[in-house]
Amino acid sequence: MDVAGLATANPVWVGSSELTMTLDGITACVDAGAGAVVAKSVNESAAAREQLAIADYAFVSAAGEVRSPGSAGLGDGLLNRSGLAQVDLDDWLAMLASAVSHGAARGCPVIGSITLGEPAGAARIGHALASVVPAVELNIGAPHGREARAVRQLTEVDGVAEAVRAVRAAVEVPLFVKLPGQASDVVALARAARSAGADAVGLVGRYPGFLPDLDGGSVLGSWGAWSSPGCLPMSLYWVGKAFQRLDVPVIGTNGARTAKDVLRFLAAGARAVEVVTALWIGGPAVLRELADGVAGIRDDFIGSALAGTREYADVPPLPSPAWLPYTARWMSSGR
Predict the structure, then answer these.
(1) Residue 320, pLDDT score
(2) DSSP character for 284?
(3) Cα–Cα distance list, 238 to 21, 179, 245, 288 (Å)
(4) Residues 98-120: what's their mean pLDDT?
(5) Residue 167: is the preceding peptide bond cis (ω within 30°)?
(6) Residue 37: what are its φ and ψ, rounded to 5°?
(7) Does residue 72 register a pLDDT over 60?
(8) Are the C-beta atoms of 170 and 123 separated by less than 8 Å?
(9) What pLDDT, on the 0 to 100 scale, is given for residue 46?
(10) Which of 152, 250, 271, 313 has the greatest count of CB atoms below 10 A from its CB?
(11) Residue 207's beta-bridge partner residues?
């Protein structure tokens, strides 16, 4: 599978997280069958690194039960608070060089990642990363950017263009830009990123989250970032719209837990899909199951769901109102 000139073993990628913060973590994902691995994000801010010390994770079942990582199920949502890698840049580059070498021997590129602090700092780090990795991901959609002062989440076209343009000028390898999902027009952000030099866009970042525990406090004791299988249709909405309206490769993220989920991302227009929470729950072995589940997919499958998808105004009247059986059942229940 080729994404903006980057050849990958398959379309199942591992997204940036604490799971890809060490050489052991990255090589475990490579060896388990990942198509590509995105290393944990870094930026220029010491405060962003310090925030990792307060990282916390809560899995939430569909019934609202809060569970520890060891007892989580594949259908659970994840509410978390996170930070960036606590490492000096020179040490990080040395680790990445080893990871890249390990991945290259297995057809699995290892991608460097920056979570935006300031555009100038991101450009400096991007230039350094590009000396050792085959591609760089610029994350300007991190939900923690709404809470943590050390990282930023950009939801306006001008801000996206400025940040991407700065990093593009410093990076000669493919540049992937990860965008938020809660902007008023994510396609406009993707268009701005593409015009400023992005080779591909990642859609979409996780959403801000908050969950009271009903005992006078809240889960995690703070706000956080949220992802769940229920986010899948929301992510696919923007993937499909971007595929339909823009000439830019799309990397899907936020909501894929199973091979069927990955296939839905591909059918909506993604060329690759980043997974993280599925690995928190099932470990690296999940990657082989996902990769096997999408084996043999051809290029003509990408975006195939859009062929029969209409705008509301173009949907023909249904033979009978779809709401009729629901209202009839509601009436018969005596409500």
Answers:
(1) 80
(2) T
(3) 28, 10, 10, 27
(4) 96
(5) no
(6) -130, 130
(7) yes
(8) yes
(9) 82
(10) 250
(11) 226
Output Rg (C-alpha) for the chain, integer angstroms: 20
The predicted structure's pLDDT at residue 335: 53
DSSP assignment string, 133-160:
-S-EEEE---GGGGT-TTS----SHHHH
Backbone φ and ψ for 250, nearest 5 degrees, come out as: -115, 135
Q: What is the mean pLDDT of the chain?
A: 93
In the numeric block, which tokens belong to residue 110?
């290892």
Query: Is residue 138 a contact partner of residue 164, using CB atoms and an 8 Å limit?
Result: yes
Q: Of 258, 281, 261, give the one whose Cα is nearest residue 270.
A: 261
- What one-character DSSP code corresponds to residue 4? T
What's the pLDDT band for 318 if we cut at 50, 70, 90?
Answer: confident
What SS3 string covers 106-132?
CCCCEEEEEECCCHHHHHHHHHHHCCC
Distance CA 24, CA 22 (A): 5
Residues 6+ apart with CB under 8 A from 164: 138, 140, 175, 177, 192, 193, 196, 197, 198
**Mean pLDDT score, 211-232:** 93
Residue 201: enclosing H or E segment and its boundaries? Answer: strand 200-203
The pLDDT value given to residue 160: 97
